[in-house]
Automatic annotation (TrEMBL):
<dbReference type="Pfam" id="PF00291">
    <property type="entry name" value="PALP"/>
</dbReference>
<keyword id="KW-0663">Pyridoxal phosphate</keyword>
<dbReference type="InterPro" id="IPR036052">
    <property type="entry name" value="TrpB-like_PALP_sf"/>
</dbReference>
<protein>
    <submittedName>
        <fullName>Pyridoxal-5'-phosphate-dependent protein beta subunit</fullName>
    </submittedName>
</protein>
<dbReference type="InterPro" id="IPR001926">
    <property type="entry name" value="TrpB-like_PALP"/>
</dbReference>
<feature type="domain" description="Tryptophan synthase beta chain-like PALP">
    <location>
        <begin position="18"/>
        <end position="305"/>
    </location>
</feature>
Amino acid sequence: MNHIPTLSEIQEAHERIKPFIHHTPVLTSASINQLAGCEIYFKCENFQKIGAFKARGGMNAVLSLSPEEQEKGITTHSSGNHAQAIALAAIAVGTKAYIVMPSNAPNIKKNGVKALNGEIIECEPTLEARESTVQQVIERTGATFVHPFNNYDVIAGQATATVELIGEVTHLDVIMAPVGGGGLLSGTALATHYLLPNAEVIAGEPEGAADAVLSFQTGKVEKAPYIKTIADGLMTTLGDKTLEIIRKYVKDIIIVSDEEIIAAMKLIWERLKIVIEPSCAVPFAALLKEKERFKGKRVGIILTGGNVDLGKLPF
């Protein structure tokens, strides 16, 4: 797909991936609602296959390729969840996945890729190293590159989480998601724009990877002033495709500190009794930080994933 996905293309993506993904539950907590001063509906993508929403976008992108492209194999670069999504999608179409991962990617995510028969090629933890290593893989294997977020088929797949949420919980005032590369946020914003045009889309971003908020203001892809955050899934910068959609359809991006992320994550573990990773807690942390703004509203939050290294819990 070479254009911003339409509603019918997002709905087609949903039908395409349905046999390969879980329809995840929406959870609520009376005690969290009381504490937050609003009604929150958590869309639990931590229960998705591979433990994260990325199964949706990766699956849609790979299923959308031609049989010839699929046959040569799929490659991508990712610190974790998208890597597992592509490995899972490669199994679905019976091909090979070549996954470039930074050497410092969490072990739980590396092990997840290995368990799905993905071939891991390690590189230095910089975007330049990721991209040049992927290029080498393409030259060596002829594999098709599926970008982790700056790809309209991936964006259409990620949008399906919000399609399900809106289908289940009508009359939401706000829908929230975290932002890293912006694949989920742009998909969330598109689905909301088409299906609930009066609802606002608000993102959460870690202070230690605050590039999207700058890009949102200037209109060009900016780098974060510094990168240091517990939210390891949100360290990438936006792409040109995701930035365009986010500037059109996202209302605001709220920055949160690691302390706020950890407190929100702990609260979800304690009250909802579910496992989520730090990146996943970012939009909830943003809501708690600006409670007044959400007072009395009905808020949907995409809980993005649960692939947390249990040996390194921050609490």
